[in-house]
Amino acid sequence: MIHNPDASSTVLIECLVIASKLWTLYLVYQLNFTLPPCREKNFRPISRAAYCITLSIFALENLCKLVTTSTQVAFKFYTVQSTAPQPLTIIILMLMIINGTLYNSFLQFFWQKLFRGDKDILEVSKKNFTNSLGIREYTQNDDAV
Length: 145
Prior knowledge:
The chain has helices spanning 5-32, 45-79, 87-115, 121-130, 133-144.
């Protein structure tokens, strides 16, 4: 096996990317329960501006990552051979799609938090899901048994 000096830096970069996603997930969890600064609670306008700018930067960052990942997925679809695709290529493509879905979820959260910051955004999604017709019928049928 040939020793590759760049392999250790590649592993380090991949670990930092994974850590970045975990920190963003932790940030989403914290921001979900954090109310934005407002004038009624004697916050200065600079606090509100910093809050909005920070959320805008996070939303823009995740938008750029989503567009980049979507472009990479489209290019990968284009280069996959239709006759006999390699299994590793398909797995990489699936992981890229999962990555793009994660960025899309982060983007939606930061966008909603920017404009509906006083609400528990993750709770609203859960309520809408459980109030859907199919779930309600399933839980009612399960209670009757």
